[in-house]
Amino acid sequence: APSGANLQPWRSYVVDGVSLTDLKRRTAARVAAGDPGDAPEYEMYPPDLGPPYSERRSDAAARRYALLGIPRDDRCAREKAVAANWNCFGAPTALFCYIDRRMGPPQWADVGMYLQTVMLLFRAEGLHSCPQMAWSVYHRTVADVVEPADDLILFCGLSIGYEDSAAPS
User: Fold this and answer.
1) Pairwise CA distance, residues 27 & 29, whole Å
2) What is this structure's pTM?
3) What span, in angstroms and rounded, lies between the C-alpha atoms of 81 and 128?
């Protein structure tokens, strides 16, 4: 994938089998205990997210929950749908993408290009994937499994598997 000055600021860890099952179990236990997650290492969204971005985000959530048959006021069902992130939506493999803490916005953009390239390569091989910043919420639990260097920040997970065409969303 392209990166400015060929820095390639990403580091990826692929997890499956027993290790992924263990990671899913550990994270599910934190979620079930009401653990809100670790101190964020970056902001997923600007705190003052305004139009048109706030509307796009709300619309995407409304459409997803509608496909899942979850009413807006059903907080429990919505939380359960969000928790599916930490089960990789049932996918058997996950890639965890980290970036060096010293990198700035241009290198974060490079990580996006890298992830898009990886996702396109998966599609070329008949696989599907789903990028998930949600994994950064429980970055310490992921780190317990993949053991990244201290100078890395978990940007996202990427669930990898075959499409479940029966799934509503």
Assistant:
1) 5
2) 0.94
3) 19
